[in-house]
Amino acid sequence: MERETNAFIRHIAVERGLSESYQLSVRQSLDSLAAFLGSTPLRDVGTAELAAFLHRRKSDGLSAASLRITTVHLKIFFRWLAKSNRAEMDPAEPLLSPRPDHTLPETLHLSQIITLLDSIDTSAPLGRRDLAILELFYSSGLRLSELCQLRLETIDFDGGFIRVTGKGNKTRVVRVGGKAIEAVNTYLANERPNLVSAKSSSHLFLSIRGGPLSPDRVRQIVKQRAKHAGIEQTIYPHLLRHSFATHLLEGGADLRVIQELLGHADISTTQIYTHVDRHRLKSIHKKFHPRG
Hints:
Strand content: under 5%
Helix content: 55-70%
Number of strands: 3
CATH topology of the largest domain: hpI Integrase, Chain A
CATH class of the largest domain: Mainly Alpha
Mean pLDDT: 88
Number of domains: 2
Largest sheet: 3 strands, antiparallel
Low-confidence stretches: none
Strand order of the largest sheet: 1-2-3
Number of helices: 14
Structural class: mainly alpha
Oligomer: single chain
CATH architecture of the largest domain: Orthogonal Bundle
Radius of gyration: 22 Å
Protein backbone atom coordinates (compact mmCIF):
# COMPACT_ATOMS: atom_id res chain seq x y z
CA MET A 1 0.00 0.00 0.00
CA GLU A 2 2.80 2.42 0.89
CA ARG A 3 4.60 1.82 -2.42
CA GLU A 4 1.45 2.37 -4.46
CA THR A 5 0.53 5.46 -2.45
CA ASN A 6 3.93 7.02 -3.06
CA ALA A 7 3.68 6.25 -6.79
CA PHE A 8 0.20 7.81 -6.97
CA ILE A 9 1.30 10.95 -5.14
CA ARG A 10 4.16 11.33 -7.64
CA HIS A 11 1.61 10.89 -10.46
CA ILE A 12 -0.74 13.64 -9.27
CA ALA A 13 2.20 15.92 -8.48
CA VAL A 14 4.20 15.52 -11.69
CA GLU A 15 1.69 14.54 -14.37
CA ARG A 16 -1.39 16.36 -13.09
CA GLY A 17 0.34 19.28 -11.38
CA LEU A 18 -1.89 19.23 -8.32
CA SER A 19 -0.93 21.39 -5.36
CA GLU A 20 1.08 20.25 -2.35
CA SER A 21 -1.93 20.76 -0.08
CA TYR A 22 -4.03 18.47 -2.29
CA GLN A 23 -1.26 15.88 -2.35
CA LEU A 24 -1.15 16.00 1.45
CA SER A 25 -4.93 15.61 1.66
CA VAL A 26 -4.86 12.55 -0.62
CA ARG A 27 -1.99 11.01 1.34
CA GLN A 28 -3.86 11.44 4.62
CA SER A 29 -6.89 9.62 3.18
CA LEU A 30 -4.77 6.77 1.82
CA ASP A 31 -2.72 6.48 5.00
CA SER A 32 -5.97 6.20 6.97
CA LEU A 33 -7.09 3.44 4.61
CA ALA A 34 -3.78 1.63 5.02
CA ALA A 35 -4.13 1.77 8.82
CA PHE A 36 -7.68 0.41 8.57
CA LEU A 37 -6.66 -2.44 6.23
CA GLY A 38 -3.72 -3.48 8.38
CA SER A 39 -2.01 -6.51 6.81
CA THR A 40 -4.70 -7.03 4.13
CA PRO A 41 -2.97 -7.01 0.72
CA LEU A 42 -4.16 -4.33 -1.68
CA ARG A 43 -5.09 -6.98 -4.25
CA ASP A 44 -7.63 -8.42 -1.79
CA VAL A 45 -9.39 -5.09 -1.20
CA GLY A 46 -12.90 -4.97 -2.63
CA THR A 47 -15.86 -2.62 -2.50
CA ALA A 48 -17.02 -4.12 0.80
CA GLU A 49 -13.72 -3.29 2.50
CA LEU A 50 -13.78 0.28 1.18
CA ALA A 51 -17.39 0.73 2.28
CA ALA A 52 -16.47 -0.57 5.74
CA PHE A 53 -13.58 1.91 5.88
CA LEU A 54 -15.88 4.82 5.04
CA HIS A 55 -18.40 3.61 7.61
CA ARG A 56 -15.65 3.54 10.23
CA ARG A 57 -14.61 7.09 9.31
CA LYS A 58 -18.21 8.24 9.66
CA SER A 59 -18.47 6.53 13.05
CA ASP A 60 -15.30 8.34 14.09
CA GLY A 61 -17.14 11.63 13.54
CA LEU A 62 -15.96 12.62 10.06
CA SER A 63 -18.34 15.14 8.49
CA ALA A 64 -20.28 14.45 5.30
CA ALA A 65 -18.11 16.96 3.42
CA SER A 66 -14.91 15.23 4.59
CA LEU A 67 -16.37 11.83 3.73
CA ARG A 68 -17.11 13.08 0.22
CA ILE A 69 -13.50 14.20 -0.15
CA THR A 70 -12.20 10.86 1.16
CA THR A 71 -14.48 9.00 -1.26
CA VAL A 72 -13.14 11.05 -4.17
CA HIS A 73 -9.59 10.25 -3.08
CA LEU A 74 -10.39 6.52 -3.04
CA LYS A 75 -12.03 6.70 -6.45
CA ILE A 76 -9.15 8.48 -8.19
CA PHE A 77 -6.57 6.23 -6.49
CA PHE A 78 -8.18 2.91 -7.40
CA ARG A 79 -9.11 4.15 -10.89
CA TRP A 80 -5.44 4.96 -11.43
CA LEU A 81 -4.40 1.54 -10.11
CA ALA A 82 -6.75 -0.17 -12.60
CA LYS A 83 -5.77 2.01 -15.57
CA SER A 84 -2.07 1.53 -14.93
CA ASN A 85 -2.54 -2.25 -14.61
CA ARG A 86 -1.51 -2.21 -10.97
CA ALA A 87 -4.86 -3.77 -10.03
CA GLU A 88 -7.19 -6.15 -11.85
CA MET A 89 -10.30 -4.12 -11.09
CA ASP A 90 -11.52 -0.83 -9.62
CA PRO A 91 -13.31 -1.65 -6.34
CA ALA A 92 -14.05 2.03 -5.62
CA GLU A 93 -16.18 2.58 -8.75
CA PRO A 94 -19.49 1.46 -7.11
CA LEU A 95 -18.97 3.68 -4.04
CA LEU A 96 -21.57 6.41 -3.56
CA SER A 97 -20.55 9.76 -2.11
CA PRO A 98 -22.45 10.97 0.98
CA ARG A 99 -24.95 13.71 0.38
CA PRO A 100 -23.32 17.11 0.86
CA ASP A 101 -24.01 19.17 3.95
CA HIS A 102 -26.09 22.22 3.18
CA THR A 103 -24.27 24.30 5.76
CA LEU A 104 -23.97 27.85 4.51
CA PRO A 105 -20.51 29.42 4.59
CA GLU A 106 -19.94 32.01 7.29
CA THR A 107 -19.51 35.61 6.20
CA LEU A 108 -18.70 38.91 7.83
CA HIS A 109 -20.97 41.93 7.71
CA LEU A 110 -19.55 44.93 5.87
CA SER A 111 -19.38 46.85 9.15
CA GLN A 112 -17.17 44.10 10.60
CA ILE A 113 -14.86 44.28 7.58
CA ILE A 114 -14.54 48.03 8.01
CA THR A 115 -13.90 47.66 11.76
CA LEU A 116 -11.21 45.06 11.08
CA LEU A 117 -9.40 47.14 8.46
CA ASP A 118 -9.71 50.45 10.30
CA SER A 119 -8.33 48.96 13.52
CA ILE A 120 -4.85 48.40 12.07
CA ASP A 121 -2.33 51.04 13.05
CA THR A 122 -0.11 51.42 9.99
CA SER A 123 2.45 53.40 11.99
CA ALA A 124 3.09 50.37 14.19
CA PRO A 125 5.61 47.66 13.18
CA LEU A 126 4.20 45.38 10.44
CA GLY A 127 0.95 47.35 10.38
CA ARG A 128 1.32 48.22 6.71
CA ARG A 129 2.06 44.60 5.79
CA ASP A 130 -0.87 43.20 7.73
CA LEU A 131 -3.28 45.80 6.35
CA ALA A 132 -2.15 44.96 2.80
CA ILE A 133 -2.76 41.24 3.50
CA LEU A 134 -6.29 41.79 4.79
CA GLU A 135 -7.15 44.29 2.05
CA LEU A 136 -6.05 41.79 -0.61
CA PHE A 137 -8.02 38.94 0.92
CA TYR A 138 -11.21 40.99 0.93
CA SER A 139 -10.60 42.89 -2.31
CA SER A 140 -9.76 39.89 -4.47
CA GLY A 141 -11.17 36.82 -2.71
CA LEU A 142 -7.81 35.06 -2.72
CA ARG A 143 -7.26 31.64 -1.25
CA LEU A 144 -4.68 31.46 1.52
CA SER A 145 -2.22 29.52 -0.65
CA GLU A 146 -2.66 32.04 -3.48
CA LEU A 147 -1.83 34.99 -1.24
CA CYS A 148 1.26 33.28 0.19
CA GLN A 149 2.54 32.56 -3.33
CA LEU A 150 2.16 36.13 -4.62
CA ARG A 151 5.33 37.62 -6.05
CA LEU A 152 6.23 41.15 -7.03
CA GLU A 153 6.23 40.27 -10.71
CA THR A 154 2.64 39.00 -10.58
CA ILE A 155 1.18 42.41 -9.72
CA ASP A 156 0.09 44.96 -12.32
CA PHE A 157 -0.26 48.14 -10.28
CA ASP A 158 -1.25 50.34 -13.21
CA GLY A 159 -3.97 47.98 -14.43
CA GLY A 160 -5.10 46.94 -10.95
CA PHE A 161 -4.69 43.20 -11.54
CA ILE A 162 -2.74 40.32 -10.05
CA ARG A 163 -1.92 36.95 -11.56
CA VAL A 164 -2.52 34.06 -9.16
CA THR A 165 -1.98 30.32 -9.36
CA GLY A 166 -4.88 28.42 -7.85
CA LYS A 167 -6.06 24.84 -7.50
CA GLY A 168 -4.80 22.40 -10.11
CA ASN A 169 -1.93 24.79 -10.84
CA LYS A 170 -4.35 26.92 -12.88
CA THR A 171 -3.48 30.57 -13.42
CA ARG A 172 -6.07 33.34 -13.47
CA VAL A 173 -6.06 37.12 -13.47
CA VAL A 174 -7.86 38.77 -10.56
CA ARG A 175 -8.99 42.35 -10.13
CA VAL A 176 -7.60 44.33 -7.18
CA GLY A 177 -9.55 47.24 -5.72
CA GLY A 178 -8.13 50.71 -5.25
CA LYS A 179 -7.90 50.47 -1.45
CA ALA A 180 -5.96 47.21 -1.69
CA ILE A 181 -3.58 48.60 -4.32
CA GLU A 182 -3.00 51.63 -2.11
CA ALA A 183 -2.29 49.43 0.92
CA VAL A 184 0.11 47.21 -1.04
CA ASN A 185 1.95 50.22 -2.50
CA THR A 186 2.32 51.75 0.98
CA TYR A 187 3.70 48.47 2.31
CA LEU A 188 6.14 48.15 -0.58
CA ALA A 189 7.40 51.69 -0.24
CA ASN A 190 7.64 51.95 3.53
CA GLU A 191 7.90 48.51 5.12
CA ARG A 192 8.95 45.68 2.81
CA PRO A 193 12.43 47.16 2.18
CA ASN A 194 13.12 46.86 5.92
CA LEU A 195 12.14 43.18 5.88
CA VAL A 196 14.32 42.20 2.93
CA SER A 197 17.41 40.14 3.73
CA ALA A 198 20.19 38.69 1.62
CA LYS A 199 18.18 35.49 1.21
CA SER A 200 14.82 37.11 0.43
CA SER A 201 12.95 36.07 -2.71
CA SER A 202 10.46 38.12 -4.71
CA HIS A 203 7.54 36.97 -2.58
CA LEU A 204 5.27 39.91 -1.90
CA PHE A 205 4.75 39.32 1.81
CA LEU A 206 7.80 38.72 3.99
CA SER A 207 8.31 37.75 7.60
CA ILE A 208 10.50 39.69 10.02
CA ARG A 209 13.32 37.33 9.03
CA GLY A 210 12.94 38.14 5.35
CA GLY A 211 11.41 34.84 4.26
CA PRO A 212 7.99 34.30 2.68
CA LEU A 213 5.08 34.12 5.10
CA SER A 214 3.80 30.60 5.73
CA PRO A 215 0.07 29.82 5.59
CA ASP A 216 0.05 29.15 9.34
CA ARG A 217 1.59 32.53 10.04
CA VAL A 218 -0.95 34.32 7.83
CA ARG A 219 -3.79 32.52 9.64
CA GLN A 220 -2.29 33.71 12.90
CA ILE A 221 -2.01 37.30 11.65
CA VAL A 222 -5.67 37.36 10.56
CA LYS A 223 -6.82 35.92 13.89
CA GLN A 224 -4.70 38.32 15.94
CA ARG A 225 -5.85 41.37 13.97
CA ALA A 226 -9.50 40.38 14.40
CA LYS A 227 -9.03 39.91 18.14
CA HIS A 228 -7.36 43.31 18.38
CA ALA A 229 -10.33 44.82 16.50
CA GLY A 230 -12.68 43.42 19.13
CA ILE A 231 -14.43 41.01 16.77
CA GLU A 232 -15.63 38.06 18.83
CA GLN A 233 -16.36 35.83 15.81
CA THR A 234 -13.53 33.50 14.85
CA ILE A 235 -11.88 35.04 11.78
CA TYR A 236 -9.84 33.05 9.26
CA PRO A 237 -8.64 33.81 5.71
CA HIS A 238 -11.33 31.80 3.92
CA LEU A 239 -14.00 33.76 5.80
CA LEU A 240 -12.77 36.89 4.02
CA ARG A 241 -13.03 35.03 0.70
CA HIS A 242 -16.62 34.06 1.53
CA SER A 243 -17.38 37.66 2.46
CA PHE A 244 -15.84 38.92 -0.78
CA ALA A 245 -18.10 36.68 -2.87
CA THR A 246 -21.24 37.31 -0.81
CA HIS A 247 -20.85 41.08 -0.86
CA LEU A 248 -20.31 41.03 -4.64
CA LEU A 249 -23.51 39.04 -5.08
CA GLU A 250 -25.42 41.37 -2.77
CA GLY A 251 -24.16 44.28 -4.85
CA GLY A 252 -25.60 42.78 -8.02
CA ALA A 253 -22.57 41.03 -9.55
CA ASP A 254 -23.26 38.22 -12.03
CA LEU A 255 -22.66 34.72 -10.68
CA ARG A 256 -20.44 33.82 -13.66
CA VAL A 257 -18.21 36.80 -12.92
CA ILE A 258 -17.91 35.74 -9.29
CA GLN A 259 -17.07 32.20 -10.45
CA GLU A 260 -14.23 33.55 -12.59
CA LEU A 261 -12.91 35.81 -9.83
CA LEU A 262 -12.90 32.96 -7.31
CA GLY A 263 -11.35 30.50 -9.76
CA HIS A 264 -14.10 27.89 -9.38
CA ALA A 265 -13.99 25.23 -12.09
CA ASP A 266 -17.72 24.51 -11.72
CA ILE A 267 -20.51 27.09 -11.37
CA SER A 268 -22.26 24.77 -8.89
CA THR A 269 -19.51 25.56 -6.37
CA THR A 270 -20.20 29.27 -6.71
CA GLN A 271 -23.95 28.81 -6.37
CA ILE A 272 -23.60 28.30 -2.61
CA TYR A 273 -23.42 32.09 -2.36
CA THR A 274 -26.89 32.45 -3.85
CA HIS A 275 -28.12 30.39 -0.89
CA VAL A 276 -26.26 32.71 1.47
CA ASP A 277 -27.97 35.71 -0.11
CA ARG A 278 -31.40 34.06 0.09
CA HIS A 279 -30.75 33.15 3.72
CA ARG A 280 -29.86 36.78 4.47
CA LEU A 281 -33.01 38.07 2.76
CA LYS A 282 -35.13 35.56 4.67
CA SER A 283 -33.60 36.67 7.98
CA ILE A 284 -34.23 40.34 7.17
CA HIS A 285 -37.84 39.62 6.17
CA LYS A 286 -38.48 37.63 9.32
CA LYS A 287 -36.96 40.33 11.52
CA PHE A 288 -38.62 43.40 10.03
CA HIS A 289 -41.89 42.29 8.42
CA PRO A 290 -44.89 42.57 10.78
CA ARG A 291 -46.03 39.09 9.82
CA GLY A 292 -42.61 37.62 9.05
